[in-house]
Amino acid sequence: MQKKQLARSALMTFTAATLLVVGYLAGTYRASATGSTAVATASATVDKIDPKTGRKVLYWHDPMVPNQHFDKPGKSPFMDMQLEPVYADEGGASGIKIDPGLQQNLGIRYATVRRQDTTDGFDAVGTTQFDESKADVVQSRVTGYIDHLYASAPMQRVAKGAPIASLFVPDWLAPQEEYLALKRGGMDDGMLIASRARMRAMSIPDGVIASLDRTGKAQTHITLSAPETGVLTELNVRDGAMVSPGQTLAKVSGLDRLWLVVEVPEALALQVRQGMSVDAVFSGDPTQHFTGHIREILPGISTTSRTLQARLEIDNADFRLTPGMLMRARIGAAKKVSRLLVPSEAVITTGKRSLVIVKNSDGRLQPVSVTVGNDTGEDTEVSSGLTEGQQVVASGQFLIDSEASLKSVLPRLEGSASPAPSAPAPASTSASAAAQTYETTGKVEKVTPADITFSHQPVPALGWGAMTMSFGKPSPTAFPDVKPGETVHFVFRQSDDGYQLTKVEPVGGAK
Question: 419 pLDDT exceeds 50?
Fold first, then answer.
């Protein structure tokens, strides 16, 4: 009995010692694991700090393939170069920061979004025409013959009172000789008055009758003159031609006032109103402005040009304009409306939307999607997206695109108001480079289903020197005959995933 109790005590003591040892080992392991985790965390934290600059790093990337991010520094898998860091103070904020000196070198200009009272209108094209309401005609009231034609051809300029044609009228001879005979015969005044009335009825001018009384000689010729200064738009007779009463010999159109006939697009036909103001500019000299108000809107839409014609009078007292001139007209309403305006050159139209590059308070350049309205000439109305007083880039937008790789930033505007971090890329990766192909010669180092690695010669168009890098294949089965060790000539282009091959062919079969 006593032996059993001793054995039980020994077993309990052994069990307690075993538990103590197990607990100690577990505690030691946990402390070690915790310490290792802390060390790893500290190490990771240290890895995210650039030891050269002390700035926090978001990620590392290859500038030639900016969409591929890496958690640690090292050599690029795409090219024979080191990965570059993207810092938090560059990629974490909205927009893109460009060095002020570089902005000056690029010639970037800024403009302020301003509010201004403008008229609600649109642009149209018009042509000058003769004012038909001011045209005069030269007609014959008697039967006669063109004795001498002073005007030589239509569209000839004439001054007021200038002779146009000399007309021989044989029927005027008899009544004038009769009048002279009555006067020489001493007839009473009643007979002379009746004779004068007969001559007037035959369209003999009062001047000819007065000359008959004064000189006593009959006249059978009359000179027809221009009633005003203008252009002979019609000349319907020639020397020696016979004319009849009521026949139009010529038509004179004045130049001191012209019509401007504006072609209004069918889509804007309902916006045109009589009395709207028009500011017209001659295409050959934009500094000269001609103003007026729409006098009438001509009925009907042209079936060929699908335009509605509106007509107005413009002053041409100094004869600067001639009919047929093309003019750009700004048609505006009488009432002015307050609008936000930016320079027209500041708006980037991509086809699907319009963008403006805004300068934020911290100096960063942020692309903003805007809704544009009417173009007022040098300025464009902005309906939404901007506020008064903001600074926008007025010139150099595409140089900014090349320098800061806005190509990767602009698509994010549709998905988020604050674009994701994006690193600057060199000018060689701009949109202009993506639209073309490049070629060089190199040695095949490695072939995989996804890409081919070359040790290639320089590519001057991209500013590359000789290097080793990988190029993506359009499909896993593309270029099946390419083997490592071959010297090939290859063509590639830039894509969203990097640089992709389009053509690979051996160079003389060299190995």
Answer: no
